[in-house]
Design goal:
Radius of gyration: 19 Å
Order of helices and strands: EEEEEEEEEEEHHHEEE
Strand content: 25-35%
Number of helices: 3
Length: about 260
Amino acid sequence: MLATSNMDYTSPNTEFTYDVNQNLLFKKDERNYINSLSIEQLNTLGNTSLLDIFLSTGNVVEPHIHQNATELVYCISGAAVVSLINPFTNELLNFPITPGQVANVPQGWWHYEIATVDDTHLLAIFDAPVPEAIFGSDILRLTPPSVLAHTYCLDEAQVQATLAPIQKTVFIGPPADCVTGVSTSPNAVCKPNNQANNQPHVNAQPYVQLQTSLHAEHSYGDAVNPAYEHLPNASYMLPTSNYTPYTMQRQLIGNGWRY
C-alpha cells in the first residue's frame, strides 16, 4: 500500500519539491555531515526517502541497522567502502564503491560506510517513507556494563571504563574531539570482498589506507572465530572519546531513530 494513498492531490498543502540542503540531520564539521529527506519534508514521496552524505577520508557512518528499510548506497563522488554482516552466513563483507557504483544493504542488516578519499559524496536511498535506525553507539551506551561483562565473561571495570566516553549517538565517527596520539596502523584497511563487482569498468581504487589514527592494541586481526567457523576479512578499531551533539533527530523508545 502506498504511503500516499490518502493524499489529497488537490490540496494547496500538497508538496512536490524540496531543498534537501535545508534539512540537516547531523553535522560533525564542514566536510562531514548528512542531510535527509523523508515524507515529513515532502508529503508526496510515497515509500522512498534518502540521506545525502558528505564525508572526508577515514570518516565512518557508524555501524547501525535499519529495522524498517533496505538501503541502497550510491557513490556520487569520491570513494567509500560499504561493509555489512550477512546474518545467514556470519560473514563480514566489504564492498568498495566509486562514482556510479552502488552497494545494497538488506533490511535489518548490520552495516557501516567508510570514506576512503576526501570529498566523498554518497546518496543512501531507502524503501520507506521515514527510515528508522538503531545505532551501535546507542546499544553500547544504553546496555549496562554489568550485563555486557557477565554475558561475555569480561572485566566489568574495564568495560565500564572503555564505554564511559560514549555519551551520545555518534552518527559520524570518529567524533570531532577524538584525539588518540598514535600512528596509523597498516591493519586498518577494509579489504574488499571476493564477490565480483559487476559493472562495465574496473574499480581503479578497490581500497586505500584509512588516514585515521589507529593503534595495534585497538585492532583485531584475521583470527578464525571458532564460534562461527568464519575467517573475518577486516580489522577495525574501537574509538574512545567524548562525543559531539547531534541535531534534528527524534528518539523513539524501543524503536530506534527516525530521520
